[in-house]
Design a protein that fits this description.
Blueprint: E1 2-8, H1 14-26, E2 31-36, H2 45-53, E3 59-62, H3 72-84, E4 88-91, E5 96-97, H4 101-134, H5 149-157, H6 162-169, H7 173-183
Parallel strand pairs: 1-2, 1-3, 3-4
Antiparallel strand pairs: 4-5
């Protein structure tokens, strides 16, 4: 059985979302799990449901690798979970199907290349930030909690608890503790 998984990062990506659903159905996916959540900082409950749903001999189908995984480690983790269940993985835009030895080899190569590209991009980004800092063109994110130091100290002096101060001022509780420690 072919089982599809579709994901977009936001609900605004409707055209891409509909295209994925269309492509998965055209590939013969009898069941499709789909969600519109970022893969970076959030859980992907529908992906988890898809992995739980598939059975031995099934194939999980995605339109693109980036719709499935965040990193090479994530790809390998998902692929290992599927392999343990004797489930294949098919990535349509790369024509990769891990039910064959060649497909598994290609999957490892593509994952390694993607990781390499990401590391190169991050290195270039760090170089650019360092150069911009040296030229005083990049100052980074302005600290928001530090600007509220006087309010934090006075509220704490008035007997408010750090969690209440954080909530009222819209800053993190750890920031409140840090400000209070520096003020002591």
């Amino acid at each position: 059985m072919f089982v599809g998984y579709a994901r977009t990062s936001t609900i605004e990506q409707q055209a891409g979302y509909e295209a994925q659903l269309r492509d998965l159905k055209s590939q013969g996916c009898e069941k499709v799990f789909s969600e519109q959540v970022s893969s970076v900082n959030s859980k992907r409950p529908e992906l988890e449901r898809a992995i739980e749903f598939v059975r031995e001999g099934d194939t999980l189908v995605v339109t693109r690798l980036d719709r499935l995984a965040r990193s090479v480690g994530d790809v390998h983790n998902i692929e290992a979970r599927l392999a343990a269940k004797k489930v294949g993985l098919k990535i349509l835009d790369m024509s990769i199907d891990t039910t064959s030895p060649t497909g598994r080899l290609l999957m490892n190569l593509v994952g390694s290349i993607a990781q390499f590209e990401r590391e190169i991009m991050l290195a270039r980004q760090r170089e650019g930030i360092a150069k911009a800092k040296a030229e005083k063109k990049f100052t980074g994110r302005q600290p928001t909690a530090r600007r509220k130091t006087s309010s934090v100290v006075s509220m704490h002096g008035a007997g408010k608890k750090p969690a209440d101060i954080a909530k009222e001022l819209g800053i993190g509780r750890s920031s409140v503790y840090r400000i209070l420690a520096d003020a002591a």
